[in-house]
Amino acid sequence: MTEPAAVRCTGLSHSFGATRAVDGVDLEIHPGEVFGLLGPNGAGKTTTLRMITTLLPTTPDRITVFGVDVARRRMAVRRLIGYVPQQLSADGALTGRENVALFARLFDVPRRQRAEQVRLALDLVGLAGDADRTAKTYSGGMIRRLELAQALVSSPRLLILDEPTIGLDPVARSSVWDRIASIREATGMTVLVTTHYMDEAEQYCDRVALMHAGRIRALGTPAELEAGLGPESTLDEVFRAVTGNRLDREEGGIRGVRATRRTARRLG
Ligand SMILES: Nc1ncnc2c1ncn2[C@@H]1O[C@H](COP(=O)(O)OP(=O)(O)OP(=O)(O)O)[C@@H](O)[C@H]1O
Ligand SMILES: [Mg+2]
């Protein structure tokens, strides 16, 4: 039997009142890959993640996580997932260790294994030495790493990160990504991540989907998407092409950007 997809979304939609935040998303994430969900503000990325993590309601047969239906078996799905939300989730009044221990309890890590799992998670993100300081004394980068430890403490098969590096300096950004990469390497965990930083997506994601106005507009490896736009294109240009106003027209933006690049080469 072939291994089920880590995540499969089929015709996934969600509206907030009159706002269609997610509008017919089909998506398949392979076990073990780092998958980037990219898109401008308001594209529907967080809404999509919140449906996958069971935090927003869905109807049956729309999402499975490792073959388990999210609407039918919410608790079973929650046990498979570690989630770092976009909004900060650590409690400043607690120490790093207490924050991670709280998640270990929430996510049903067996009592006898808790202390050791908490220690391991803090170690993985490089916070062992700072574990007993209160989180309000941490820098932004340390907070993000603490949240990563919170998500990892239950040894999830699927790690979901919503803008894990937003607001961090370049060194802290690469530190978070290096941790994610080495954890993935060690555990074979699947990672689903959103980011606005195209250089990060290019460097760390096996495949990416570009989302705009609730829909997936392009999907593939960074190299495939770049090649689709033309020689020497960057993911940044693909992003602009896909999310630009031109996409409102039938032809799509890719053609327009290709023409612009040809013109630029002629002139340059
Ligand atoms: N709780 C909510 N109530 C009403 N509207 C919402 C709510 N959450 C999101 N929306 C709307 O749904 C759309 C998609 O929002 P979402 O947060 O999924 O976007 P996003 O891609 O994560 O954006 P960002 O990059 O800014 O985080 C937006 O138009 C947003 O205003
Ligand atoms: Mg968001």
UniProtKB/TrEMBL annotation:
Name of one Pfam family that matches: ABC_tran
Record's keyword annotation contains Methyltransferase: no
Keyword Nucleotide-binding recorded: yes
PROSITE patterns in the cross-refs: ABC_TRANSPORTER_1, ABC_TRANSPORTER_2
Keyword annotations: ATP-binding, Nucleotide-binding
Domain ABC transporter: 7-238
UniProt-listed PANTHER family: LINEARMYCIN RESISTANCE ATP-BINDING PROTEIN LNRL
Protein name: ABC transporter domain-containing protein
Organism of provenance: Amycolatopsis bullii
